[in-house]
Design brief:
The chain is mostly beta strands. Helices cover 2% and strands 56% of the residues.
Length: 319
């Protein structure tokens, strides 16, 4: 099937970028052992074709088996010269947990099909221009006119992140990355992107990328999705996001009234009194952002060009 300028379509893509909003995801670091999975698929066939892929990947800096709720603080937190620690001299590192999900389903019947797909998953630490998970799919279909052939395609990528916040002193290479208060605030963010098509003829390409594992907090969490197609049928592409971000308050021992915030910042940190309860040390993290973003584009009929490009980036340092 003749491809109708797929590469040129990307240049005309509708761009949706959420990276301009102040968000503060803290990527989890890799485990000591890492894994990699790569698949490459090429199919040319007259007749029927199916393909399906599902990925669910959970990552945590602590114990996935001990959830919910997330472990947010130790019962005894003290300020030391090396930062916030509990009574066992362990650095204060509340839990962060990420869930990445990917799903693709394709059925093409009574037609000519060309299919090329490359998928790669790597659980190792990544830098700002690399991905933990990426998929590129190219799909061409022409139905047999006397057999009422049809193709159906759907694809979705999701990233869900949550943390009660943590100390920043041991998470940043950048000397200014810790911020004024020395904490990474709590967050609870979920973003989904995807596309679908159903019809009698299509030439399409999609790309899905995601990163949430990094050695330090300097590397922002990111995901992106691109789709470009032409054909006869119905197409859709969408992004859904719900962002909830915290702001750093003080960390106080409510029993003695003594600040356990990093030395030198006691007078400049705002206390959140709602969290100073039950005489338990608390980080005082306050919800300061609640953002819901939804966008969906559809087209039906003889589609000359359909393209959409979406990206999301979250971190105290972004590129």
């Amino acid at each position: 099937m003749k491809r109708q300028g797929i590469a040129a379509i990307f240049a005309l893509a509708l761009l949706v970028i959420l990276s301009g909003i102040a968000m503060a995801d803290d990527a989890v670091s890799a485990t000591r052992e890492t894994q990699g999975i790569t698949t490459v698929t090429h199919v040319v066939v007259y007749g029927t074709f199916t393909d399906s892929a599902d990925v669910v990947w959970q990552s945590s800096n602590q114990d996935l088996r001990n959830n919910p709720p997330l472990n947010n603080y130790s019962d005894d937190i003290i300020q030391t010269s090396s930062g916030l620690q509990n009574t066992n001299n362990q650095t204060w590192t509340p839990e962060a947990q990420y869930t990445m999900s990917y799903s693709e389903q394709t059925l093409a019947d009574n037609g000519y099909i060309e299919w090329d797909k490359t998928a790669s998953l790597d659980t190792g630490n990544k830098v700002a221009n690399q991905d933990n998970f990426k998929v590129t799919t190219q799909f061409d279909f022409v139905s047999f006119e006397d057999a009422y052939g049809r193709a159906t395609f759907s694809e979705s990528l999701l990233l869900d992140a949550a943390s009660m916040g943590s100390g920043a002193s041991n998470r940043y290479l950048c000397p200014w990355g810790t911020g004024d208060s020395g904490f990474i605030p709590a967050y609870c963010n979920i973003v989904e992107m995807g596309s679908s098509f159903t019809g009698s003829r299509v030439s399409m390409i999609t790309q899905a990328n995601e990163r949430h594992v990094a050695a330090s907090g300097d590397v922002p969490v990111a995901m992106s999705y691109n789709v470009a197609l032409s054909g006869v049928g119905s197409a859709a592409a969408w992004i859904n996001a719900h962002i909830m971000e915290g702001r750093t308050g003080a960390a106080y021992d409510n029993v003695s009234g003594t600040s356990i915030a990093p030395s030198g910042y006691v007078d400049t940190i705002v206390v959140n009194p709602d969290l100073l309860k039950n005489k338990v040390p608390t980080t005082g993290f306050m919800q300061s952002v609640d953002l819901v973003y939804k966008e969906k584009t559809t087209a039906s009929g003889t589609i000359q060009d359909f393209s959409k490009s979406m990206s999301y980036q979250s971190g105290t340092r972004r590129i």
